[in-house]
Amino acid sequence: MYEVKNFNAKEAKTIIEGKLSRFFGVTGQEATTDQFYKAVVMAVRDILLEKRNKYHQTVKKAKAKRVYYLCMEFLLGRSLKNNVFNLGIEKSLNEALASFGTSLEELYEMEPDAGLGNGGLGRLAACFMDALASGDYPAMGYSIRYEYGLFKQKIVDGWQTELPDIWLPGGEVWLTQRADKTFTVKFDGHIREVWKEGGMQVEYFDYQEIEAVPYDMMISGYGSEAVSVLRLWTAQNKHKFDMRSFSQGDYMRSMQADNEAELISKVLYPSDNHFEGKSLRLKQQYFLVSASLQNILSEHLHRYGTLDTLPDMAAIHINDTHPALAVPELMRILLDDNYFEWDTAWNITTSTLAYTNHTVLAEALETWAEDLVSRRLPRIHGILKEINRRFCDDLWKRFPGDWNKISRMSILSHNTVRMANLSIVGSHSVNGVSELHSEIIKSSIFRDFYEYTPEKFTNVTNGIAHRRWLNQSNPELCALLNDCIGEGYAKDASRLAEFAKFDRDESVLKRIGEIKRIKKEQFAEYAKKKQGIEIDPNTVFDVQAKRMHEYKRQLLNALHIISCYNALRDDPNLDVLPKTYIFGAKAAAGYDMAKQIMKLICFLAEDIRRNPDPRIREKLNVVYMENYNVTMSEALMPASEISEQISLAGKEASGTGNMKFMINGALTIGTLDGANVEMAERVGEDNIFIFGLKADEVDEVWRNGYNSSSYYNHDAELRRIVESLIVGFNGCSFAEIANYLLRKSPVADPYMCLADYESYTQTHHKMSELYRNDPTEWNRKSLRNIAAAGYFSADRSVRDYAERIWGLKRLDK
Ligand code: 26W
Known about the structure:
The chain is α/β, with parallel strands linked by helices. It is globular and about 90 Å long. The protein is 50% helix and 15% strand. Strand 20 (540-545), helix 23 and strand 21 form a beta-alpha-beta unit. The longest helix has 30 residues, at 33-62.
């Protein structure tokens, strides 16, 4: 294991003073907190660089295979705490900082979140970078250095508005420009086929050139030798500044090319599970893929002198279909730049690439308009046509005459390019992200492909960076764990299982309750400071935190709260368990229904807050946390007692928030969807609260024609809730939502809130009863959840990928 040498408090102090003086011209007495933050980051970066260089030598010497993880999103959050923890330099730094009258805790607050992602897919990629380094796997992530990450959410009168997320001031200290690794990416222009000595060659002319300049970020492993590198590309105009226009006084024109080029890495698309065929997004995807592949291949060539061995030395991962142009781009580089024969090039391509699917929602599946692709990327379009021609020939041989099947599987169809089909055809491995999800893709969206090449399909259940979500976010719980089972679980999460032995130890169970209470108080303070909102830590914290989406059913949660509110309005003396329902969620900017649901929750919250009867307010509180992000999540997960994982079964590919709540001891109320299924298997069904239709039942109800009104007609409680929606909250009617649940067309209640309502409320009642009547048993279940959460560590996920998909070995010697 790598140890940071000579980094005691005295040495740390000298280094920090050196940075302060050289970069800011101040002494430790004069420096601001922001200057301390930057000085410490620079010191940590130096350590990371040294560790990385050493590891790099080891990888080189061992001629080890590497993984390259291509992803449009990395939702990193903050980095300082994670790196300090993983490098084990917390104590020295804190001692050094104390002598200046500051502390790491104070500096952590100076760091903006790097919000270069929307939700689950992006956070998973970030967790994987950490786990890869901790598992001593040689890994590099590739993405775009968006100038603006996911928008900052402001809620005005219940309505979400989006403000730019300015993260670079404060975030840029983590980035090292690598101008020496700049590549050129070409767009537009035309193709001409010409006969040359070696045969027919393709000439590409009149193209536009964009420069891809990389910025590297380093992520240290924990208790390991490795450092992962995340390389983020920035787009620049290759032909800097149009001097002629400028000197002719046409300033605007001289800037135009710069602006157009820079637009590519300007902003992250704030959309999650919804595809929009925007030209700029296509350009972003190709920009990422082309720069990354040029980089990977030129380094491979430099190292080994041939590209024949690429599949032996490199695994390139396509994270969802967003980087699927890696398939034709890799072919292009092999064919046009390195003169490979088609079949050899195809063999190398498919042996190197692997693809993970992260969603089954039809509206998320990317299909680009073929004429857009042919205009922006004419050479790539030509290669796509040839890939498809050969693929359809193969299909014709396997399924002669089955035109329907062939047209379903075709990559090009009805003037669109189907990115999922392309990803499957161009990869040697296709996986889903939970057992259920991996089964669903085989039997539904990718069924034809599964029947064609069953050996490609596999599952890797998602996992979380448990050191971030447990060790760093919940030191109080870790102190208890350390007392009971030692500290080994930080390195090996499966050792959390040893905690189960304490499930009859009253003092341990009591401490679990006390720790939860402390985390709730801390969160209440945080909410007060952030949003001026009062939360009573004596109430149960019931939390739903994730992107706002119909399929995740925040609306189902709201319907249940409305019913509780109605009951309390009928009888304010009702003897119920006092609860605070906490929501955190951003909606895609153009997603109206999601914004309507958000508004309902905010207005409901306000209505309750303004209720004149304190007996109601004491028992029911609803809080909508503004601008939910990674850092807020780190404060929220440890404070949660009930975790809402209530998507319509079959729709949530995995979920990873569910795992973060679980490892912090929250009890889950959830459907048998995504990874909830495996959580239930591991923790035992007595320790999780499962409700609602199962995935196959959902399909069946759907096949027989789902009729939400039948539930409405048979359930007086539901009728009362819908009535309340129409009457409204805080002076605003939500008749539109009532209509959405019951309308004639388009289909009413598309995510079946009404079908699952009864089972959901009953399960809530069961949980409340348990909490009130048997707090010890509640804590026991909490303990069992913590003990069973080890499997859901990203360390285990990346090990699965490494062994079963990438063919990587860990390099810890
Ligand atoms: C093209 C628009 C778009 C953007 C993002 C479509 C789809 C996406 C992502 C694939 C959506 C996403 O984040 N999916 C989530 O991935 C997580 C990690 O595997 C899973 O845990 C979640 O269940 C899944 O919704």
